[in-house]
Amino acid sequence: MTTTAPRKTGRKRGHGEGSITQRKSDGLWQAALTLPDGKRKYLYGKTRKDVQDKLARALHETRGGLPLPDNRQTLKAFLQKWLIEVARPKVRATTLTRYTFDVKRIGDSAIGRFPLAQVTPQAIQAFLNDLTAQGLSARSVQHSRAVLRSALTCAERWGLVPRNAARLVSPPRAQHHEAPAISPEQAGAILDAFEGHPFEALVTVALGTGLRKGELMGLRWDDVDLNAGTLTVRHQLQRINGKRELTEPKSRQSRRTIALAPSVVESLRLQRVRQLEMRLAAGARWQETNHVFTSAVGSGLDQSNVTHTFQAQLKRAGAPHMRFHDLRHGAASLLLTQGVSARAVMDVLGHSQITLTLGTYSHIINEVRRDAADKMEGVFERRRVANQTRAN
Question: Which residues pair with 291 in a beta bridge?
Fold first, then answer.
């Protein structure tokens, strides 16, 4: 009678599994997959099931014409490649600087060492939670998640990952802060504090137009039409890699033309005279940049220095402390409380969406709505008084 030798368990492949074996050296399971080009790809796992799952995915992807994920490429390596080849050619320099910072933050963390194809929603959620635990603001954590989502969208499109894991993760919600409002009396006090100061025109234009700080620094005389009483935002001045450079506006809506109040036009006329005086005083040291707001030798202003000087002058004048950016919020609040529509304020500020304007200044808009209701009540009150008069 012929006997059949017992089959060794855990060694042979099952039906449709491909070539799956267990290595004697370390006990790891491995599968050998022959690619369409004849090359062999090895997949590894701690259990037969791990390898079966990897092999099934690999067979599905290769039959679908997708490239087989490279388990040796880490998330960090892919992000660095994406930053150079995808992000850098299409984003603004300031955005690239922020992306670079976030890519380094992600790459230097534990998740950066993960193989790209093995980055899961759970791993990304743990990474974001860790950033929050380190004390980073919700907005900073949101930025890191946004960079991950953008990069993994590219990886998904290239077939390097089966899905975008970052899209399945919820970032922390940023706390909503009400934009500070400035009353006409407060605006007058600020303007008084800078009367005769080198920043007098800068503060006047900021409060009268709501321009962003970089837009003010990048404003050139070619952008200003004093006769027509308008200015056009075409650039912003930013510090990039330690150097001040003119860059494109923040968005398409940021490129805009603004009508100026007569007092703002007059302030710009005085600024032109003061700049000519500075040019004569500087002599050969003068640097011709054509900027409206410059240093004593004509060079562009540094944003951080502007903030320090602004706040120091407020303190000397006994005025309340505030950020320079609050002048932009002040301009918006003054316009809204004077009855200017939210849509018009959106255009002046260069917001990309009306929802941004409504959300940022919702508390002010609610006050304006209440004022509108009170004025409407005045119409009904006059009618009641008229009816009572006729009845008497």
Answer: 220
